[in-house]
Design a protein that fits this description.
α1 crosses α2, α5 packs parallel to α6 and α10 (295-305) packs parallel to α11. The protein has 11 helices and 12 strands. It has 2 domains: 23-77, DNA polymerase, domain 1 (Orthogonal Bundle), CATH 1.10.150.530; 83-371, Aldolase class I (TIM Barrel), CATH 3.20.20. The protein has helices at 28-37, 43-54, 68-78, 138-142, 150-165, 191-202, 224-231, 248-254, 263-277, 295-305, 330-342; strands spanning 83-91, 96-103, 108-115, 120-123, 127-129, 144-147, 178-181, 216-220, 238-242, 281-287, 310-316, 347-349. The protein is globular, with a radius of gyration of 22 Å. The chain is α/β, with parallel strands linked by helices. Helix content is 32%, strand content 18%. Residues 1-13 and 360-375 have low confidence and may be disordered. The structure holds S-adenosyl-L-homocysteine. S-adenosyl-L-homocysteine is lined by residues 132, 134, 136-137, 182, 186, 219-221, 242, 284, 286, 315, 317-318, 320, 361-363.
Amino acid sequence: MSVPEIKLVFDEPVQRKKTPKHLADYSPEERRELAKSLGLPAFRANQVATHYFTHLSNDPENWTDIPAEMRKTIAEQFTPKLIELVRSVECDGGMTRKDLWKLHDGVLVESVLMRYTDRVTVCISSQAGCGMNCPFCATGQAGLTRNLSAGEITEQIVAAARACANGELPGGEARLSNIVFMGMGEPLANYNAVTRTLRNITDPNPDGLGISARSVVVSTVGLVNGIEKLTEEGLSVTLAVSLHTPDDELRDTLVPINSRWKIKEVLAAADAYEKKTGRRYSIEYALIRDINDQSWRSDLLGRLLKNRNAHVNLIPLNPTPGSKWTASRREDEAEFVRILESYGVPVTVRDTRGREIDGACGQLAAAEKGNSPTG
Ligand code: SAH
């Protein structure tokens, strides 16, 4: 007699409904393979990719180069709806708009669209929640819910491009020009989906949106293994490193992953990235009153960066609810900037676009004054 197997239910990982596969999850080659596996000629994959990335169309009715009877199946297989708008909140007279998206399993993520005189930037989420646990960041407090698929990340970008093309922002029709991975999540902790997305952004028609890698910023807490891998991808996106302090002692608490990779190692990885890609990198630094805004820290940061091809982006802290921390005093901020500049380090203070809609809480902020990644 066999002993019945006892299942320890509490030992089972949470079974999530799988995110449907989308053409944005596949490489162009795999898309053509998928078409063939459905008994279609490979060029159908290119046609649907053109509708999606070039015409930003998610309505198969308009895909007139594809036989009408095939459109439904093709749309189901290639472009299932992955994100649904829950609501939008606007400020700055509509020039800043935060969209809240519901994913197929009910998980919520946000993106922020910002129009400037010379560009339109979307700030997107790469994960639902975040596992990095930085104490000043709202997303970090909630922990990681799950990684987003490349389809779910790309959908946020395509939705933003569509909103621009439809003239939804004041000022009429526009072209989405910049993409920053500064929403929820640590992009390099969701490496494959993020790099697939980077290719969807930069590949020319029909394979992607054809947006220049120079206009894309990937912001990281400093996962050295991820930076090293990205260096080998041949993607010249702008790297931003969330440093927040030049000394390991404080950084161990502000950016807990610092206990794994110290400042020296993070900067060495960023330098290697800069060397390979020729792209100046950004150092992000949230200025927190009396925590990391002392002049000696600015001095130390200046010495650390003076011979590096890096630019400092100071972000006035946007306090999270219940936080004991707040933004630096104006005069301390000005002194911090002055000291850095005395070392010849380029520095900008990010504007606080979208603050009223919690869009400038850092994780959802990308409004960098005078710091357009395109120059
Ligand atoms: N995980 C990535 C990207 C997400 S956030 C990273 O850490 O870089 C984008 C930037 O906003 C990061 O520099 C992050 O440290 C910063 N940030 C997070 N919360 C903030 C807050 N409350 N105020 C100001 N900046 C914040």
